[in-house]
Each structure stands twice: as structure tokens, then as C-alpha cells.
Design goal:
By secondary structure, the chain is mainly beta. β54 and β55 form a beta hairpin. The N and C termini lie far apart (111 Å). It has a 42-stranded mixed beta sheet that branches. Strands 1, 2, 3, 4, 5, 6, 7 and 8 form an eight-stranded antiparallel beta sheet that branches. It has a five-stranded parallel beta sheet with strand order 10-13-15-17-19, with no helix packed on it. The protein has four helices and 72 strands.
């Protein structure tokens, strides 16, 4: 089968509904444009099936969701890949699909005048199955297809032809050639059993006991289980092991190859038995499915715990219709399935309602149309086998917990439409309280334990590709869980990629959560869960690339109540679109849950429509959690003439500080330093022939929560240099506007402007340094750093006429490092000088004397006024011994006579005093001790 790719280029498939009467043929005039409409619903809306019929008609057509109409295109077309016809003797089955849901009929007859027309269905479907009846054996027939959409689009096919088979002695007719009656025992190998009339039976229709048997239902309907069963089922033995159990068609011998069933309907009758009673059960074929096939068969059933195509070990199951009208599930772990078994190809089927799960066990699941009405947990519409392709399916769901598509190893899931509504809980299952949860794609790799307690068990789930899918989730009031994509990372789940998908989660109410706290609601486009593997085990990356997320509630939940931990997920080139209605619960990103953290997640190169990326995510957990959100920009290195600095190594030094609180931060390169104490780090970038370094500059917000403190890192400057080129300093924000960095060759600089002739770097006071120079150029530029190999930041310049530059605002006692270079007004720059260290002196004062004032009983301290000009005040300390412990007794401030009273002078003896000068809050050196006179 040809593989599909590209959802928007894909031709969609389409389906038809099944009731108790299938393939009705009427004699009528040719179908006319505008004449096709669905039949009336089959049941009262007060019943469960009637409610679903009404909901399907109101909520699952393209006009209810613009993205579906955009994806399907505006032109109604037949899907050539879906065409199928089975020609019998008195009938034929015709299967086909259209790219938009439509009502269809087939006109047919012996000539191109046709004359006979099939009936319409009860809804607008993508996939269609019609039975052409009242035919004659061995004749040539003409037919053509007609389709009409809800909005009136009309399509007619060309004339097509087929021939019915001639009867021969190899055909066994039912009932004419089988006088022993029901259940009919099909025990002739290689024979075709042909049903020639409709039947209504108390119990089973047929048992298959021979290989290579073909059942041709002849376009007729078999009603089974219409009366009392032959015997009651024994409760402790599976029904397929009990000879008298009631089924429509079943295999009662093991390992029969080549079983084929075509062209008709099997309907459960009035008795409505449960816990078995399947329309078709081929359990005993037991993996001998090659060459077996079920096609063009319609089934209708409703019994408690009754599945549809049950354990069908066939090679192909295609162009069938299933309707499950039932309501009960005894054990959701066993599951009630529209189809289950080992099936190599499941294609172009129309499962128009099922109460629990759709197709479970298919390998190539292509072009189906499924409608789930969930009654219990984990209602997967498709749960594929390993080594599978799941493509071009149209999946619609509502109810307790519908899930679109699951996961298995080596799966390619692409070009599917998943459209699910989350209504308030209708009390269908007692499990999980009153849950109402919906999921588009669910990838939860259970059995991922790797610790000593749980041991290593379960097969890895790996090599998963989800591409070009359209997922739409619409939670209603009372819905408390709606996840477009719900997955868990695990140490043994590798090579998982989600690419080019559109995920839309649109709340239809502000009252989504039935619980009183936000934890109970997981309504988000993407919900990532994780585990905590052992420290020595590598944790695979999960990549989400080129996806579009649309929501009015949440785009990504990094952890939720189902699970959290180390995810190691990369979101690359994600587009976020905010919906502006019913957004009372809007929180674009959430991290962690309860005492479960979330870490090692990164969002790169995100584009937005109405979304503020700088807003902090909401932290729900009480432990370490983090995420990075950033965009990358191209860098290009050129010389002063604009020529690329090609095929070389460029050194990039990034400097900054770790900051707490709400701050932006910029980082270079995309990775932050390993330790939060690192205030600078250097990386080496390689340039190509055009001097480009791809994705080297990244503007990043790093959100981290540790023990209730929310942090972001702030990096704000960078220097660039290459072999043979001088450094160039930049603020990283400037590179967003222009990613071209001009580096000047050191050889060119030395040839034009060399080192200055004389330069002095010396202090002038406790808060400034004087930088003096002498040369014949226009001036000097000055740069300062906090360490000899640090980031030298431009601090200012001085013209040659000024001959000096004063760097003020310095801290007393701190050492600064300076460089300078000459400049010309034409833009020329010289070579940087070697660094020079300047230590700003601490403030100090000197004594004049300290003595008793003979005119009073006070003691006065006198300070040398020559040392007072560069201090704010001086602290006066006292001790009873020259080398004793000194206690602060006063703050001496400058006054006109440079003296101050010494308070609280002790009586008797000699006392010793010291002074400490203070400037800008920094205390200087102590004076020598002085005794009071």
C-alpha cells in the first residue's frame, strides 16, 4: 500500500453507518445534485445510542472545527486508494472513501441507464460500504458513485463496470445445500459457502472447522442470538472454548489458514446475550492469519461485555462497518473492542460507535474512520502492534476516557485526524471517581523500572515517529482532563520524535475542573511525564519539532498528577497560538506536581501568536524543577572590510551574574554554566566559508525552583576574538538586531595605530583613578575588568586635548584592571595595552594629638586636617592598654577646628585611643595607639 505523508496534502477517508438493515436497494431515478440527505436517527435521544447519534451529528462534522476544513481542502474528491469491490453471484459489495464526510449512494444496473440505487446512511461519513443486490450470476454490470456533503458539495464518479460470477458445482449454498440446519458446520476445505437469503436465528449462524473456507454472505443479513441460547455459558470457561456458545460466525478448530468472510451483515438479535456472543470470533485461528481476510462485512451488536470482530487472526480486515449499541463493561482490563487480534492490515473500516476500544492489535492501520463513545478507562481507538504504520485515520470520540492512538515499538503514526470532545461525566464507570478525561495521543511506557527493587522488566518502547497529525481536543464544562499529546519519557524508550503535528486544546467553558484545586485538571496541548532513572543510566531525549500548539488553557505541562520527574524533552521550532475565549484557567506552562520535580526540559526557537514567553511558568511542585525557554540567532564574523572570517575558531567569552527573582537572561552558547557560581565562561565556535556559526547566540529564560525560591540567570555581555583578530565587546541584546560581528585584525591595528607612547594608571583618591596618556592621535579609549583575565568593559574615552580620564565611583580597597587603546576619529582603533592593576587606597587619617582640655574636665581629640579631606568621618576606639582590646566610643566628624569631645572618659589612669577612617561605608586602616595626655 502506498504510504502517505503530509497531512495537509493527504486525501482523507470516509465512512458509512450500519443499522439492522444493510444495503437496501430501491428502484429509483438517477441521483441528482442536492438530493442526498442522511436518514433519520435510528433511536430515541434518551437512549445511550440515540444520545450518541445526536451528539455525532452536532459535534463531529467539519463545520464545527475550522482546522478540519482547512486540512481537508475545498474540493470534494474520491480517494483512489480506498476503492474496493467484491463481486459475488447475486450481489456485490462496493467500498470507497471521499476526502470530506458525505452522504453517498451507488447507482447500478445492466446498462448505463442503471435503474437501481442503494439507500443513504444516517450521517455524513468518510468511508462507505454499499451492497448491490438483486443481481444475476454471470452478467456484466455498470455502476457509479454519488456523494454530497453537509454544505452541499456534490460529486459523481465516472461509469464503472464489474461482472458477477457464474454458479458452479464448487459453491455450497446456505441454506439449500445444508439441510442439517444451524449452526451450519463449514467443514469442506477450499469451498465457498454462499448465503442466499436473510436469516433470523435463535443462536449461532456458522462454525468453521476446515481450512481455506470462504463465507460469502451474498449481501444478506444474518440476525443471530434472537432467542434462547442452546445452553447457558459456563462462567469459568471462556466462551470460545464452549461448543454451544452463541456467536454469529466462529472458528471451532485450531490453526485454520485461509479463512475469508465477505459481503453481508451480521446483527445481534433480541436475546442480547453478554460476556461472549460476538458477531465474529476467530480466536482459534491462533496466529495462522496469512491469507485470511474479512472485508465488506457489517456487524451490529449490543450485549453486555460483547465485542465486535473478536480475536480475528486474519491477514486483512478492511472495508467493514461496525456498530456497537451496548452500554456495559465488566472488566476494562480485558477490554471491549470493536476489533482485536493479530491483523497485518486494518484499512478503510468504518466503526461507527464502540463503547470502549476500537482497533487493538493491527499492524498497518490505514484510512479507517472510528467513533468512540467511552464507557471506561483507556478507551483507545487505535492500539497498534509493534513494527506498525498508523496513517490517514479519522478518529472521533466522547465519553468517560477516550484516547485516540497509543504507542508501540517501531511505529510510524502520521497524517491522522483525532477529534475528541470531553463532556461532563455521565457516571458510566465507578473507577476514578467522576473523571472525564480525553487524550489524543497517549504514550505511557509502563514496565520501565530499572531499579533494584522493581528489577528490569518489560520490552523497551522505542523508535516512535508521530508526524503530520491533527489533534483537536474540546473539553466542555465539568471535564477535568484533556491532553492532546500525553507521554512519558523513560530510560529504555529511545528515538521518540513528534514532528509537524497540530495540537489544539480549546476549552468550551471556564468551569472545567470538578475539583476545587488546579492539580485536578490536566488540560493542555502536551503533558510530559517522566521517571527518575539511576544516576549511571543514560536518559534518552524526546524530540518535539516543528509542532503547532493552540490553546486557551495551557500549551505544555511539564509534569502532572499522573507522573513527573526527569523528562529530558526538547521542544524545537514550536509555534504557540493563544485562543482568546474561555481562558479563565489560562496558564501557558506549568512545572512539576506535589513533591515530584521536573527537569532537563528545553524549548528552543519558539514562535508565538498572542503568547508572552517571558512570563514565568507556574510551579506546582515543592521540589527542584526547571525549564529553559529560548530562541537562537545566527552569528557571522567578518573583518573590517566585510570579508568573512572563514574556517577558523572564534573564542566567545560570556560574562554576567546569577540573579534571583524575575529577570530575563541571555546566554552564550545555548548551555548555561555547570555551576551557578560561575560568572564567566568561554566557548569556542567554528566558522564556515561565509564566517557563519549557526544557532550560536541564544536568548534564554531559565526557570528554576529550589525550595520555594524562583530564579533566573542573567547574562548580559560577551567578547569575541579569533586567531589573529582582536577582541570586540558586545551586549548580547544588540546581536538580536544584527548578528554580524566585525573583528579587526591585530596586524592591521598595529600597522595603523600602535600602542600609546606614554600611559599612567594611578589613583587620585579613595573613589577614583586617574588614567593619563600622551600621544599624537585623537584620543584614548579605556576598558576595565575585575580580574586580569576578566571581561574588559568599555568605560569611556578622552580626547588628546584632555590628556586624562577619571574613572570614578570605585570601591576603596578593591583592585581594578585597566587597558587602553588609541583611536582616530575616522574609526581606526589601536592595539590594546597590557593590563595594569590599580588598587584603590583605603581611607586614613593621622593624629594631631589627643589630650585633656585644661579649661574643662573634658578630653578632646585633635585630627591632622591634612588627612581629613578624603574621608567621611573617623571611628574613635579606646582601650586601657596600648595593645589591649579597643571599644568604639564615638564617630568623629570633621568640623572647623578639627577636634571633637571624647565622651564618657573613665576616671584615673592613662587611656589609649585609635582612629579608623571611613569612606563610602568602607573602613580604612587604624592609626597607631595614642595615649591621652
Amino acid at each position: 500500500m502506498e504510504r502517505r505523508s503530509g497531512f495537509l496534502k493527504m486525501i482523507c477517508v470516509s465512512v458509512v453507518i450500519v443499522g439492522c438493515i444493510f444495503g437496501m436497494t430501491i428502484v429509483a431515478a438517477a441521483a441528482q445534485e442536492g438530493s442526498l440527505y442522511p436518514k433519520a436517527p435510528s433511536e430515541d435521544p434518551s437512549t445511550d445510542y440515540g444520545w450518541f447519534e445526536q451528539f455525532r451529528a452536532l459535534q463531529f462534522t467539519p463545520d464545527t472545527e475550522p482546522l478540519i476544513e482547512q486540512a481537508l481542502g475545498g474540493q470534494l474528491e474520491f480517494d483512489a486508494q480506498a476503492d474496493w469491490l467484491y463481486s459475488s453471484y447475486y450481489s456485490a459489495a462496493v467500498g470507497f472513501a471521499v476526502n470530506m464526510p458525505a452522504v453517498t449512494v451507488v447507482e447500478y444496473g445492466l446498462t448505463t441507464d442503471y435503474g437501481m440505487t442503494t439507500d443513504t446512511q444516517d450521517f455524513y461519513y468518510y468511508n462507505h460500504l454499499h451492497y448491490l443486490t438483486d443481481l444475476e450470476p454471470g452478467r456484466d454490470y455498470h455502476y457509479r458513485l454519488f456523494a454530497q456533503t453537509k454544505d452541499g458539495k456534490w460529486l459523481a464518479s465516472e461509469d464503472r463496470e464489474f461482472s458477477t460470477a457464474a454458479l458452479d458445482d464448487g459453491i455450497i449454498r446456505i441454506p439449500q445445500d445444508m439441510p442439517d440446519g444451524t449452526p451450519y458446520i463449514l467443514d469442506s476445505p477450499g469451498k465457498t459457502y454462499l448465503l442466499t437469503q436473510d436469516m433470523t436465528l435463535d443462536a449461532s449462524f456458522a462454525k468453521i472447522t476446515a481450512p481455506h473456507v470462504t463465507i460469502d454472505l451474498g449481501g444478506h443479513t444474518v440476525v443471530y442470538d434472537n432467542g434462547e441460547p442452546i445452553s447457558e455459558l459456563q462462567p469459568d470457561i471462556p466462551p470460545y472454548y464452549q461448543d454451544d456458545a452463541t456467536f454469529g460466525i466462529r472458528a471451532t478448530a485450531w490453526n485454520l489458514p485461509g479463512i475469508r468472510i465477505y459481503n453481508g451483515a451480521i446483527v445481534q438479535g433480541a436475546h442480547g446475550g453478554g460476556g461472549g456472543y460476538n458477531p465474529i470470533n476467530l480466536y482459534m485461528l491462533n496466529f495462522t492469519q496469512e491469507g485470511s481476510e474479512i472485508a465488506g462485512v457489517s456487524i451490529d451488536y449490543y450485549g453486555y461485555d460483547v465485542s465486535g470482530f473478536e480475536s480475528v487472526y486474519v491477514w486483512k480486515l478492511h472495508h467493514n462497518v461496525a456498530v456497537d449499541r451496548g452500554i456495559g463493561i465488566k472488566d476494562r482490563h480485558s477490554g471491549i473492542k470493536a476489533m482485536s487480534g493479530e491483523v497485518e492490515e486494518v484499512s478503510y473500516n468504518s466503526f461507527r460507535r464502540f463503547r470502549h476500544q476500537g482497533a487493538v492489535g493491527g499492524r498497518n492501520v490505514i484510512g479507517n474512520e472510528f467513533y468512540g463513545d467511552s464507557y471506561d478507562t483507556n478507551s483507545y481507538m487505535i492500539l497498534q502492534k509493534p513494527d506498525s504504520e498508523v496513517a490517514g485515520n479519522r478518529l472521533f470520540g466522547v465519553g468517560y476516557m477516550p484516547v485516540g492512538i497509543g504507542a508501540n515499538t517501531n511505529s510510524w503514526i502520521h497524517d491522522n485526524l483525532i477529534y475528541i470532545h470531553g463532556t461532563a461525566n455521565r457516571l458510566r464507570s465507578p473507577e476514578y471517581d467522576r473523571i472525564s478525561g480525553i487524550s489524543g495521543i497517549r504514550y505511557i511506557p509502563y514496565n520501565q523500572a530499572t531499579n533494584d527493587y522493581d528489577a528490569v522488566y518489560g520490552d523497551p518502547i522505542e523508535n516512535l515517529r508521530y508526524e503530520d497529525n491533527l489533534i483537536v481536543m474540546k473539553p466542555w464544562e465539568g471535564c477535568n482532563s484533556a491532553r492532546g499529546l500525553w507521554f512519558s519519557t523513560g530510560p529504555r524508550s529511545v528515538n521518540t520524535v513528534f514532528k509537524n503535528n497540530i495540537i489544539k486544546v480549546e476549552a468550551l467553558s471556564d468551569n472545567l475542573n470538578q475539583y476545587e484545586h488546579r492539580f485536578g485538571m490536566s488540560i493542555t496541548c502536551v503533558d510530559t511525564n517522566g521517571t527518575h532513572p539511576p544516576e549511571d543510566m543514560a536518559f534518552p531525549v524526546t524530540l518535539l519539532e516543528d509542532n503547532t500548539l493552540i490553546s486557551n488553557v495551557q500549551f505544555i505541562s511539564f509534569g502532572s498528577e499522573y507522573g513527573s520527574g526527569r523528562h529530558n524533552v526538547i521542544f524545537k521550532n514550536t509555534r504557540l497560538v493563544k485562543i482568546n475565549h474561555h481562558n479563565a484557567n489560562y496558564e501557558p506552562f506549568t512545572l512539576s506536581y506535589w513533591n515530584y520535580g521536573s527537569s532537563e526540559n528545553h524549548m528552543m526557537d519558539t514562535t508565538v501568536d498572542g503568547v508572552d514567553l517571558s512570563a514565568a511558568p507556574v510551579f506546582y511542585g515543592q521540589t527542584f524543577s526547571e525549564m529553559d525557554l529560548g530562541n537562537t540567532y545566527d552569528l557571522r564574523f567578518v573583518d573590517s572590510n566585510g570579508n568573512p572570517i572563514a574556517n577558523t575558531q572564534v573564542s566567545v567569552k560570556v560574562t554576567g551574574d546569577w540573579s534571583y527573582g524575575q529577570h530575563y537572561f541571555y546566554s552564550m552558547p545555548p548551555e548555561a554554566p555547570q555551576q551557578p557560581t560561575d560568572t564567566e565562561y568561554t566557548v569556542i565556535l567554528s566558522t564556515d566559508a561565509q564566517g557563519r556559526v549557526q544557532a550560536a547566540f541564544k536568548e534564554t529564560y531559565h526557570f528554576v525552583k529550589v525550595c520555594g525560591i524562583q530564579e533566573r540567570v542573567d547574562y548580559n555581555a560577551a567578547l569575541f576574538s579569533a586567531q589573529g583578530y582582536e577582541e570586540a565587546g558586545f551586549a548580547l541584546a544588540e546581536l538580536k538586531e544584527d548578528g554580524t560581528v566585525v573583528l579587526r585584525s591585530t596586524e592591521e591595528a598595529e600597522a595603523s595605530l600602535g600602542l600609546p607612547l606614554w600611559t599612567w594608571f594611578h589613583e587620585a583618591s579613595t573613589t577614583s583613578a586617574v588614567l593619563e596618556f600622551s600621544d599624537y592621535h585623537d584620543g584614548m579609549e579605556f576598558f576595565r575588568a575585575d580580574s586580569v583575565n576578566g571581561n574588559y568593559v568599555y568605560i569611556g574615552s578622552a580626547a588628546i586635548s584632555e590628556r586624562q580620564y577619571i574613572d570614578s565611583g570605585l570601591v576603596p580597597g578593591k583592585t581594578y584592571y585597566y587597558k587602553g587603546r588609541l583611536y582616530q576619529n575616522d574609526g581606526s582603533r589601536g592595539v590594546m595595552t597590557d593590563p595594569v592593576a590599580v588598587t584603590v587606597p583605603l581611607p586614613k587619617v593621622t593624629w594631631s594629638w589627643i589630650r585633656y582640655d585644661h579649661s574643662s574636665a573634658d578630653v578632646k581629640v585633635y585630627v591632622n586636617w591634612n588627612s581629613w579631606y578624603d574621608v567621611d568621618y573617623a571611628n574613635l576606639y579606646r582601650s586601657d592598654a596600648a595593645d589591649g582590646d579597643y571599644t568604639l566610643v564615638a564617630a568623629v566628624e570633621m568640623n572647623t577646628d578639627f577636634s571633637a569631645d571624647v565622651p564618657d572618659v573613665p576616671e584615673g589612669g592613662v587611656w589609649y585611643y585609635k582612629l579608623q577612617a571611613v569612606k563610602n561605608g568602607v573602613g580604612g586602616e587604624f592609626t597607631e595607639a595614642a595615649a591621652s595626655l
